[in-house]
Amino acid sequence: MDATVGRRERKKAATRQALADAALNLFLEHGYDRVTIRDVAEAADVSTTTLLKHFPSKEALVFDQDTDREAGLVAAVRDRAPDRSVPRALCEYVKRAHLHAPGAAPRFGAFADLVRTTPALDEYAHRMWTRHQVALARAVARATGAEDDDPRCAALARFALEASSLARGSDDPARALDAAFDLLEHGWSAG
Fold first, then answer.
1. pLDDT higher than threshold 60 for residue 143
2. Please, are residues 52 and 41 in contact by the beta-carbon 8 Å criterion?
3. Phi, psi of 171 (to 5 degrees)
4. Collapsing DSSP states into helix, strand and coil, what is residue 147?
5. Structure confidence by residue, pLDDT tens digits, 25-41
6. Is 60 exceeded by the pLDDT of residue 188?
7. Do 43 and 89 share a domain, yes or no?
């Protein structure tokens, strides 16, 4: 029985990956708005119904690693070095997650451009990213010994997640992130 469950889960994961890969290839080649859900299903050799069982919307096809992001945010806080502050650990994670760095996956830049230049994807990405606020606030509370409902933890989580939006609109995203997280860590010192 366990072998059957394992095989079934592997098949589901393979289908999900095939759909995500087909979608990204088509979106990069033809543009997001020119590709339909039916086009993606055909490219992955599945029915539209099967596609919709794995991805509830066209936007979701682009962002298939949402749970990994939440786990990464929580781990950045929980597993940070003893001498690393929570804001600094989050800054480093956000940079890794959102900035195209040398040595990153070859298509990361094309993917980032696709999201940035497609309003529906940019908005969806922002909504997905900021929905991790509650989990991040809890991780901050646990890491700092605060109560789970401490508004300072919720504020830090909210502003840390919003920093990526600020960076996307900047000519120097890394500098913008450093400035935002420096403010979160040290507060406002200007007059």
1. yes
2. no
3. -70, -25
4. coil
5. 999 999 999 999 999 99
6. yes
7. no
191 domain residue, yes or no:
no
Q: Are 75 and 88 in contact (CB under 8 A)?
A: no
Structural domain span for residue 135: 66-186
Check whether residue 90 and residue 154 sit in a common domain.
yes
45: phi then psi, degrees, rounded to nearest 5:
60, 45
- pLDDT tens for 80-124 read 999 999 999 999 999 988 775 545 566 677 887 888 889 988 888
pLDDT of res. 104: 53
CATH number at residue 19: 1.10.10.60
Q: Go through 38-68 and write b for each residue having 16 or more CB atoms within 10 A of its CB, e for each that does not.
A: ebbbebbebeeeebeebbeebbbbbbbeeee
Matching residue, tokens 């840390």: 160
Q: What domain count does the chain have?
A: 2
Radius of gyration of the chain (CA): 19
Which residue from 107, 114, 91 is spatially nearest to 174, judged by alpha carbons?
A: 91
Cβ atoms within 10 A of the Cβ of 8, count?
10
Per-residue pLDDT at 4: 60
